[in-house]
Amino acid sequence: MVVLLGAIVVLLAVGALAAYSLWPQDAGGYANADDPTQVALGRRVYMEACASCHGENLEGQPDWRVRLENGRLPAPPHDATGHTWHHPDELLFGMTKIGIAAVAGLEGYETDMPAFEGVLPDAEIWAVLAYIKSTWPPAVSARQANMNQQYQQN
Ligand code: HEC
C-alpha cells in the first residue's frame, strides 16, 4: 500500500512537471534566465544577431541616449544600465519580433532596430531574452519579474 501510494505521488509529480514545462510554450513561449540550455542558445544567437549593435558585453552604443544626426536613437545597452529591464518579457519579445514601431503603435517611427520575424524562430528570440535576463543582478531581475506579473494580470 505504501509502495502504491508512493508510486501515485511520483506519477502525480511527473505529471505536474510535464504540464508545467509544456504550459508556458503553449502560452506563447518564455524566457527562463535559470535554464542553462536556453541561456547558452540565447548567448550564441545574441553574438550573431544582436552584439554588432547592442555590444558584445551588452553595453550598447556609445552615447546611446543622444540621438544620431538622422534623428534616430543609437542601440541602448541590454545590461542593467539600460532600460531593457523596464519592460515585461512579452513586450521585449514583440519589439524583437515585429519591431518597436509595431509594438508601440507608432506608424512611421524611424529606427535602426530591425524586426526579426522570419529571421529568427520564436524559440531563438525567447532564448536571446533568457540570455539577456541572465546577465542582470538579482535586484534588477526581481523588479523585472514584478513587471512581468503585473503585465500578465492586465
Ligand atoms: C542594426 C542594429 C541593431 C541590431 C542588429 C539589433 N538591434 Fe536592438 N536596437 C537597435 C536600436 C538602434 C535600438 C533603439 C531603437 C529605438 O528606440 O528607436 C534597439 C532597441 C532594442 C530594444 C528595445 C530596448 C528598450 O529598452 O526599449 C530591444 C528589446 C532590442 N533592441 C533587442 C534586440 C535583440 C534581441 C537583437 C538581436 C536579436 C537586436 N536588438 C539587434 C539596434 C539594433
Give the SSE layout.
Elements: H1 2-26, H2 36-49, H3 51-54, H4 89-97, H5 100-104, H6 122-134, H7 138-153
Helix pairs in contact: 2-6, 4-6
Heme C (HEC) binds at residues 49-50, 52-54, 73-76, 82-84, 87, 92, 95-96, 100, 111-114, 116, 128.
Task: Give a verbal description of the structure.
It is a single chain. The protein has 154 residues and is mainly alpha-helical. It has a single domain (28-153), classed as Cytochrome c-like domain (Cytochrome Bc1 Complex, Chain D, domain 2). 56% of the residues lie in helices and 0% in strands. It has helices at 2-26, 36-49, 51-54, 89-97, 100-104, 122-134, 138-153. α2 packs across α6 (122-134) and α4 (89-97) packs across α6 (122-134). The relative contact order is 0.16. The model is unreliable at 14-27 (pLDDT under 50). Heme C binds next to α3 and α4.
What is the average per-residue confidence, as pLDDT, rounded to a whole number?
A: 88
Low-confidence runs of at least 5 consecutive residues: 14-27
What small molecules does this complex bind? heme C
CA-CA gap between termini? 47 Å
CATH superfamily: Cytochrome c-like domain
Please give the CATH class.
Mainly Alpha
The SSE string, one letter per element, is HHHHHHH
Instruction: Estimate the global geometry from the Cα principal axes.
Output: globular
Radius of gyration: 19 Å
β-strand amount: under 5%
Number of strands: 0
Tally of domains:
1
Question: Biggest sheet: strands, sense, closure?
Answer: none
Looking at the overall shape, the CATH architecture is Orthogonal Bundle
How large is the count of helical segments? 7
